[in-house]
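User: If only I could read C-alpha cells as easily as an amino acid sequence. Underneath my words sits a plain record pairing an amino acid chain with its C-alpha cells. This is the protein in question:
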Amino acid sequence: MCDGQGRPQVLLLSEGQMSDYKGAALMLDALPPAKELLGDRGYDANGFRDGLAERGITACIPSKANRKIPIPHDRVLYRQRHKIENMFGKLKDWRRIHTRYNRCAHTFFSAICIAATVIFWINQ
C-alpha cells in the first residue's frame, strides 16, 4: 500500500501489552517527513528519541516521572495533542472498535476506517 507520493504506508496492530514506544519504534522507517512528533509519556524512551533525531524529527514528549534528568519539551505545542486524544475518544464511541470485536486485523482496520470516515463526514 502506498500513499499519493509513492511512499509505502505501514499499518501495525500490536498486542495490547506492548509498550507504546516499542510499537512506535517498529514504525520509525515508515514515518512520513515531519518536523515534530507529539507523544505522551508512554513514548519517552532514549532509543525512540534517538531514532526520531536521526530522521530530523523533534520529539515533543514529556519525560516520565522516573527520569533522573527530565528532558524539556514544548508545552505550547504539546497542548495540541488533545485533538489526537479527542479523535481516539470518538472512535471508541463505536462499540465494535472499543471492544475490538473483530479478530482479524484487516477487518478491525476496516472498521476503524469506516468509523473515521463517518466521524469526519458528520463534523463537516
